[in-house]
Design brief:
about 170 residues, mainly alpha, about 0% strand
């Protein structure tokens, strides 16, 4: 059986909940001060709110990645690793949606966009990994996803939010 270790240098980001805005939006007529005809953009998070939100969003994704890495490093059967790749996919999709839904402070917006662009590429490979027909295809797709882990971009996001560098484990 192939060693999975080389394929799993996955110091990526993370998943969680997006902000849900419920409730009816009321619009005032322009003559009453409601000149905007469309919904308003939510205010950006404060730096402290942004830190907490980011960490909450990425935690489930990081956990799924670490679970996959542990199983692969332990030499678990490839079908088991494939199931874990499907969990990573689900966590990654949720994570990406939540990151996109959040109105980040201005210094974090460009790094976040770069992170999400890289993550979109990785998602394609996680989808393929979750459906891999054999160990070779699984390994190939995990390696491809790892090549687009977004680790560098995530580091830039963390710095923009005033968070320390990510440490696995």
């Amino acid at each position: 059986m192939r060693r999975w270790t080389a394929a799993l240098a996955l110091t990526v980001l993370l998943a969680g909940c997006g902000g849900d805005q419920t409730g009816a939006q009321t619009r005032q007529p322009a003559w009453q001060g409601g000149a905007s005809a469309g919904p308003t953009t939510p205010a950006a998070l404060t730096p402290e709110q942004a830190k907490r939100r980011y960490l909450a969003i990425v935690e489930p994704y990081n956990t799924a990645l670490e679970k996959l890495e542990t199983a692969a490093n332990a030499g678990k059967p490839w079908r088991t690793v494939r199931e874990l790749a499907a969990e990573v996919l689900r966590a990654n999709e949720a994570h990406a949606a939540a990151l996109r839904e959040t109105t980040w402070p201005a210094p974090a917006r460009a790094p976040m966009a770069a992170l999400l662009a890289e993550n979109d590429i990785a998602l394609r490979h996680w989808r393929r990994a979750s459906k891999a027909a054999d160990a070779e295809a699984l390994l190939r797709e995990i390696r491809a996803a790892a090549a687009h882990s977004g680790a560098e971009e995530a580091g830039t996001v963390r710095a923009a939010l005033g968070l320390p560098a990510y440490r696995e484990g």
